[in-house]
Amino acid sequence: MLRELKTFIAVTRHGTFAAAGMHIGLTQSAVSAQIRQLEHVLGVQLFDRTGRQAILNAAGIRALPLAREILETFSRMAVPVDANEYRGELKVGAITTVQTGLLPQALVRLRQMAPAVECKLVPGVSLELLSQVDAGELDQAIIIRPPFDLPKELHVQVLRKEPFVLIVPNAVEGDDPLQLLNAHPHVRYDRASFGGRLVSQFLREQKLEVPVALELDELEAIVKMVECGLGISLIPHAGLWLERAAKIRVIPLDELTFHREIILLSRYSQRNLPVPQLFAQCLMAGADEA
User: Fold this and answer.
1) Please, which residues have CB within 8 angstroms of residue 48's CB and are 6 or more apart in sequence?
2) How far apart are the first and last CA of the chain?
3) Which structural domains are found in the chain, ordered by start?
4) CA–CA dist 66, 78 (Å, integer)
């Protein structure tokens, strides 16, 4: 019945038998057959079949949390009790700042706790990695939380919140962020990126139209451009540049501060599997120490 319960949950997430089938790799008729089998075993109908939508009835609403509980209990039965029992490949996507921030120590912990697990790191930008998790090409990805609602089948775990700051060359005087943004060219965090969209929102809210000297998506490169005097920039307080004596001034935004959230993204169907769950624990341990 585990297969039928998974199909039942998929239908409730996607709203129709056809949409559920597309996401779990079954035809609409196969989904219908599995739901009929589940209803036959339970002795109750779970959906009001009106039109194309699959709407839960009272019995279905009661059954849904129990179905999730059964599947979660089953997945916990597979959790190894010994490190050598953790096996397989883990495909993890990560944005650049995470690759040199949270990720290294998390991978060290994972290696110590599960030496037989082979981890493959896939670099990329947040939108690209999100799509790969959604398509099942990655087990998990560490990305910036997007400024839009995620598909229901994706699970989010917040790892940390990073405040944005204003960085300016040492030679630039003044400490008022809004005055400086009005007076100097901007090395712009790429507007197409999730982090860059947060900057765009901030500038709109403050009714600022800043002259753009350059636009790019690499934080280390942005810092270097500011060091060289190309302009000033709004970036998250994160990255390798914090580990060296960068020739810039960092100006906090104080009450105007906004943040980007770094999240661990996975599919609901994968999040409680032993290896992804262990990796999430390793990441959270590092986030708690930061």
Assistant:
1) 55, 56, 57
2) 43
3) 2-77 (1.10.10.10), 83-160+261-289 (3.40.190.10), 161-259 (3.40.190.10)
4) 19
For residue 267, how far is the Cα from the chain centroid?
Answer: 10
> What secondary structure, in 3-state letters, does 54-106 show?
EEECHHHHHHHHHHHHHHHHHHHHCCCCCHHHCCEEEEEEECHHHHCCCHHHH
Tell me which residue of 239, 127, 237, 103 sits closest to 190, measured CA to CA.
127
Q: What is the pTM of this model?
A: 0.70
pLDDT in tens, 103-140: 999 999 999 988 889 999 999 999 999 989 888 889 99
> Token pair of 149, please?
């609602």
Q: Are 248 and 84 contacting, i.e. CB atoms less than 8 angstroms apart? A: no
Token pair of 40 as six digits: 């036959």
37-59: string of b/e by CB count within 10 Å (b at 16+)?
ebbeeeeeebbeeeeeebebeee
The tens digit of pLDDT for each residue in 249-287 reads: 999 999 999 999 999 999 887 777 788 888 999 998 877
The one-character DSSP state at 124 is: -
